[in-house]
Amino acid sequence: MSRVIGIDLGTTNSCVALIDGGKPVVIPNAGGYKTSPSLFAISQDGKRLVGHLAKRQAITNARNTVYASKRLIGRRFDSREVQTAIKLCPYEIVRGPNDDPRIVIAGKTFTTSEIAAIVLREMKHVAEEYLGEPVTDAVVTVPAHFNDTQRQCTKDAGKIAGLNVLRIINEPTAAALAYGLGKTAEQKIAVYDLGGGTFDISIVELGEGVVEVLATSGDTFLGGEDFDRRIVDHVLAQFQEREGTDLRQDSMALQRLKDAAEKAKCDLSTLNSTEINLPFIANDANGPRHLNVTLDRGTLEGLVGDVVAQTMKCVEQCMSDAGLGPKDIDHVVLVGGQTRTPMVQAAVQEFFGKRLHRGVNPDEVVAVGAAIQGNLLVSGERDLLLLDVTPLSLGIATFDGHFATLIERNTTAPVQKAHIFTTTRDNQTAVKIRVLQGESDKAAENHLLGEFVLSNVPPAPKGQPEIEVSFDIDANGIVNVSARDSATDAEQSITVSATGTLSDEEIEHIMQDHEQHELPRKK
Amino acid sequence: MQPAGARREREDRVPRLAPGWERCGLTLSPAEGFLLSRIDGATPWTLLREIGGLAPAEADRCLERWLAEGLVNVGSGGPAAAPASPAPPASVTSGPAGNSLESQLDPSLAIAIEAQRRVLEFEAGLERPYHELLGVAAGVDAKAVKRVYFQLSKEFHPDRYYGREIGLYAEKLDRIFRKIVEAYELLMDPTTRAELERSMGGRGPEQAAVPEPPAATQATPEAQKPAKAAAPPPSAGRRALERLHRQFRLPDSILAERRGRAREFYAAALVALHKQRWLDAASSARLAIAFDPWNDDYKKRFAEAQMKVNEIRVKDLLERAEVAAHGHSLPEALRLFEEALHYRPHDPLVNARAAEISLETSDYARAREYAERACELRPEIGAYQRTLGLVLAREGLRDKARVAFERALELNPKDVKAADELKKLRRNPRRNSGGKR
Questions:
Q1: So what CATH class is B345-433?
Q2: Cis omega before residue B226 (within 30°)?
Q3: Which pLDDT tens digit goes with each residue over B33-47?
Q4: Which A positions 466-495 lie with beta carbon below 8 A of chain B?
Q5: Residues on chain A touching B161 (C-beta within 8 angstroms)
């Protein structure tokens, strides 16, 4: 039986696990760490570096080191997320031919799927080193609110990395799965996942060995990095005030400060006060300048209070989506390193009014869940089943610019739903079907997944033809949309999920390219 | 679905008590109670008629009613545990369906024969009423429904056989699971559940005795009418209701009640119209339609209110679009014009503006589409022809561009720009075929 690995492809850190002898094992990398930074860099002499290696040189090579690229994957260049990232990142982000963001480092352009693939390949190697045999099958996790394009791009990344991605599953679902192992009683669990770059809240129900997602909500642009950024901004302002030097233009200094901020943040989870010490951060007419700032927990809490409040707003939204109150929740599971911050724990605890569950390691639980799902699929185990749901509503645009939902979010797949539409003009012979995903009433505010035209509708007065539009999602999450004219039985359809931003040839081409650049393994 | 046929088939089958039947809060006459006590999961319908102590027609009526209420399942397809030994052979040898099921079993597949049989049987009964499909009685609590749903999911979810060679069973599992989800969703939604159970209750003895009321066929064309006429998307509840209409006939008392509610909303819509609160009026009218989809007045008022709402929306969109266009935020302007076009696809001016903006952003394909539409709608306006000409010239379609400019000049001989462009086209026949500036 082939092995299936579970990969938590995180914004800042990634983790890989598998089921060995019926027990989940989180696999340490060559350095002994159970998580690896999701970083990719090209060094001064043209070598490609991943993970801890990339992080170790990130300070001196800031412009050629890619971090947090998960925020860009599957998005359009003009999206708010990409535009914000452009302002924040020391590396260059340009517009790709498909309006996708591409990353330029060391004069070479990479798609976001490629960057993700490099990280996935690293995780694949970690597992292969541990097992001493090749691994190809994997289950990869994504945030619950990723749309189909983002999921497909992640799948493409797996393909580029030489992985056969059996499933893409939601991170909180994976966490619940890890938590639900061996449990039989019916429980409702809130999964609060504050990672490096994304925030997710999901309400999951476990019972009779079935895991079901009742509701999910979240924010793709909210996470531990916001904490770091707040600290960086705070320190920059203090430094400018004291020394009169603005470090914002200096990518080296910024990267150093970012690292120091992250460390200070972690320190403040256990200490009440810490120091940020960066000697020789700048030079001016008077010689070298040093940065030395003391940060205490109260200050940090003041800096990030609104970020935490924002997550709690998502929690409330999610609870009302699920039609539940805090009392209905049996357990609260914390996921993501940022949940180690006392202020976050206090806020969550206060909302739900119960002790937080600490039985699972917040950094590893998602990868463990992914490994469990992979194992469930191939072993055909009968005691546990993951019922996955659609993360966002699916529907089509109507002639008046509205969004007609056919499949509501949180619907269990596989599923098929159909609805009858009609023409809006007399003698209209063609109908354009625009397939959208999102929660807004307005078509323009939702994400366009694809479009097609049903033609040869027999001329008739408006409102008379009956066009049945049907949406079908199979167990693999592939969405098929078809439109059928009931008068002629003429039918048109598209498969919308199969398109990321890369074509198959592009993926093939990139795969070959990457093989050439592979670093010789062995250390 | 032929009720008569279904009935004949049912008579060959074996009624069995659904799990949880005790909790239904039954009120039975002693005779009915006796009949109920004879149901042992082995005695077929025909024999129950003989030994039930009731007149055969009476016994049929009772059984039909219990079947509709989900109290009783027929055949061996119910989710109740299969009775020890006598039932399976009976279903294999007696019913004609049994033989065809048996012939579909394939030991070479990676799905156990027992499981195959279960899939085939469950699939055969897939069109049963939802309560029966899940094997739950009316009034059973949500937790019990969910438990059954989970159990069935574990048994029939396609992931159970992921990556295995199970032949045609893959499709069958898919079909079954979809149906289970559908039943689960309808039964977990209190509104649709109430409708389902009310219609079951409404099917009293006098109605149940007439097995072929063409309720389903009659409801279908009517139920589809609202879907067609109402351009705005109906809510999920409404869609579920349409499905209900198809499956059950609503009792007259419920229809009357719904019409009453529709009238209330309609009255509110009229008041709102009078006060020119168009949005309120549209939503009230829409609700009236939801409760009584057959009233044309409601639709008329809704259309009226919706038109006003759209007018206001379009006006706002166009203002914002012009502001964006003047602020040189062209993509934003184009988006706003296009949104306005959703509401007013036949407004020549909006089409022309969309064409001009698209032209400026070098999106010639789009520009041409809009320019052509503008010209089509108002062929007598020279400026539109000129815009079309400009687009065509940029696209390198010189002959067509020339025709457009000539026509623009014909309509407005003082159009200097068109004359200019025309001159350029004639002067250097080669160079500006691509795009000039």
A1: mainly alpha
A2: no
A3: 777 777 777 677 777
A4: 466, 474-475
A5: 380
